[in-house]
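Q: I'm writing a short explainer about Bet v I/Major latex protein domain-containing protein for a general audience and would like to include a description of its predicted shape. Could you first generate the structure from this sequence?
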Amino acid sequence: MALVGKQEADVEIKAPADKFFNILRSEIHHIPNISSDKVHGVEVHEGDWETSGSVKLWKFTVDGKTETIKDKVQIDDKNKSVTFSAIEGDLFKSYKSYKATIKITTTAEGALAKVTLDYEKLSEDVPAPDKYLDFVLNILKDVDAHIIKP
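A: Of course. Here's the predicted structure. Afterward I'll give you a sentence or two in plain language.
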């Protein structure tokens, strides 16, 4: 069984791709208000809210457990993608590395958010990070609902 893995999933977005990407790119501090049952706080530790290389600390609940993660953010405006590379946090109890990339594309029906998780487990006993993938997908659905609500 491989220790290095990748998971991918898509979420259909009804909101305009540019508005959706803008929240991920420079208004990520709104996520605790948009998805308050999942994300309890996010704060800048280095940089700012919208510059590549900035470091943010997240407090959230996944599978009924409160966790924290500190990540470094890389923003690709041309491809409308944001990558969150974990540098500290609770998931390092199970994973040697963890990176989540969210890419927004325009479709005929609206937009699509593609989530890619790249990770390395500490041992073969560690499960794939399904709960973290589901967590990210659910937050993206919350963001979409927030943007399109009247």
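A: For your explainer, you could say: The domain at 4-148 is CATH 3.30.530.20 (Alpha-D-Glucose-1,6-Bisphosphate; Chain A, domain 4).
Q: Perfect, that's easy to follow.
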